[in-house]
Write a structure and sequence with these properties.
Elements: H1 6-14, E1 27-28, H2 41-54, H3 73-85, E2 90-94, H4 97-107, E3 114-118, H5 123-131, E4 135-139, H6 144-153, E5 158-163, H7 175-184, E6 188-192, H8 207-210, E7 219-223, E8 233-237, H9 239-248, H10 250-253, H11 260-275, H12 278-294, E9 307-311, H13 315-327, E10 330-331, E11 333-335, E12 346-350, H14 357-369
Parallel strand pairs: 1-10, 3-4, 3-5, 5-6, 6-7
Antiparallel strand pairs: 2-8, 7-8, 9-12, 11-12
Helix pairs in contact: 2-11, 3-11, 4-5, 12-14
The structure holds pyridoxal-5'-phosphate.
Length: 372
């Protein structure tokens, strides 16, 4: 037995073993629920109303893959609504962002094609690429010179994969330069909008919409488990892309579809954010408050996004800091190496619409005073 689990034993020895921990009741500086929608009572009752309206007889589970019993007319209505919202021809909904990314990159690029990935992209995109028979290479984070060198050498259909907002550093991709570069080489751009869905762009349509280049990007992933406060994800693009994924994307075909209640949640959440811009405004104020309060203090990021960091090198150091802050009732999580490069161990601090400015100031004070 022990030889099977020796990697776990090694991790325990190094002090970097992962374990599950609920931090209920703490002030949330950790979740991706940037708008505070996950616990929003108005949204909760709207979800219930929509569910009961479209499914007067309860249907607890979908009962199968969407290609079999797990498909309903309402699911198509939700996809049509999202396609209109994202100003695209079609969207296909997946059970999670992980499944959507796995589906896209494992099914679209073929043997002889090339996938070029920003080195910091999410594990779900990397795993999708790993399942593909295409050639795959990374380029340095946000480095368009390195990308161009690789574009020159790439063969077959070329897919360039990036995120609009990176989840560990809170920085944006240079989309306005990236898109024309990719297009000059006749390559296809894949943009994961996981951390921007709901909080950037007109009515929360994402960062590509904010930069007015969404129509030029053929493959977009929007997730619902972060700022939208619910669950699931969609791939947005052409009707042909949707048809292709329904036919070839194994994480879509070989899994039980999300239940009706989850589709009702998607429908309700997108209605809700369009009617309630105040959460987005509060989040923007909190980002500004963070940036003003950290000022020139060292170690703190000053990002124009809800994802901030405090870098304090060393796994032991960052864990001790996180524990001290948690002991005061503030939920922040340490990000250890090798998840991030050695020497850049950090607290990942997510700001939310429902954090108060006072809570943000106290958090910064707790971190600063740890060193005194
Ligand atoms: C950039 C990015 N893409 C995709 C995902 C996966 O989305 P989901 O949590 O819906 O599976 C995540 C999750 O953290 C992410 O950060």
């Amino acid at each position: 037995m022990s030889s099977i689990f020796k990697k776990l034993a090694a991790r325990k020895e190094e002090g970097i073993v992962r374990s599950l921990r609920a931090n209920e009741g703490q002030v949330d500086f950790s979740s991706n629920d940037y708008l505070g929608m996950a616990a929003n009572a108005v949204l909760a009752s709207s979800i219930d109303q929509i569910y009961k309206h479209y499914f007067p007889q309860p249907i607890n589970g979908s009962g199968g893959s969407r290609l079999l019993a797990g498909h309903f007319n309402f699911y198509e209505q939700v996809e049509k609504t999202l396609a209109d919202f994202f100003e695209t021809e079609a969207v296909l909904i997946f059970n999670s962002g992980y499944a959507a990314n796995l589906a896209l990159l494992s099914s679209l690029p073929q043997k002889g094609d090339t996938i070029l990935m920003d080195e910091y992209i999410h594990a779900s995109l990397k795993d999708g690429a790993r399942l593909s028979f295409a050639n795959k290479f990374s380029f340095r984070h946000n480095d368009l010179v390195d990308l161009e060198n690789k574009l020159k050498k790439a063969e077959g259909e070329i897919y360039v994969v990036a995120e609009s907002l990176y989840s560990m550093d809170g920085d944006f991709a240079p989309l306005e330069e990236l898109q024309p570069l990719v297009s000059r080489y006749g390559a296809h751009l894949v943009i994961d909008e996981a951390h921007t869905t709901g909080i950037y762009g007109r009515g929360g349509r994402g960062f590509l919409n904010e930069k007015k280049i969404a129509a030029k990007v053929p493959f977009k992933i929007y997730t619902f488990g972060k700022a939208m406060g619910i669950h699931g994800a969609c791939i947005a693009g052409s009707q042909e892309l949707k048809d292709y994924l329904i036919n070839f994307a194994r994480p879509f075909i070989y899994t039980t579809a999300m239940p009706p209640h989850a589709f009702a949640s998607v429908y309700a959440a997108f209605l809700y954010i369009q009617q309630h811009p105040e959460h987005k405004e509060l989040l923007e104020q909190n980002i500004q408050h963070w940036n003003e309060t950290v000022g020139q203090a060292s170690g703190f990021s000053k990002n124009e996004s809800p994802i901030q960091t405090y870098t304090y090198p060393g796994n032991d150091n960052i864990r001790a800091l996180a524990q001290a802050v948690q002991a005061e009732g503030y939920d922040v999580r340490p990000i250890l190496s090798p998840t991030v490069k050695e020497g850049t161990e950090r607290l990942r601090i997510c700001l939310h619409a429902n954090n108060t400015p006072t809570q943000i100031s106290i958090l910064i004070q707790l971190i600063t005073s740890f060193h005194e």
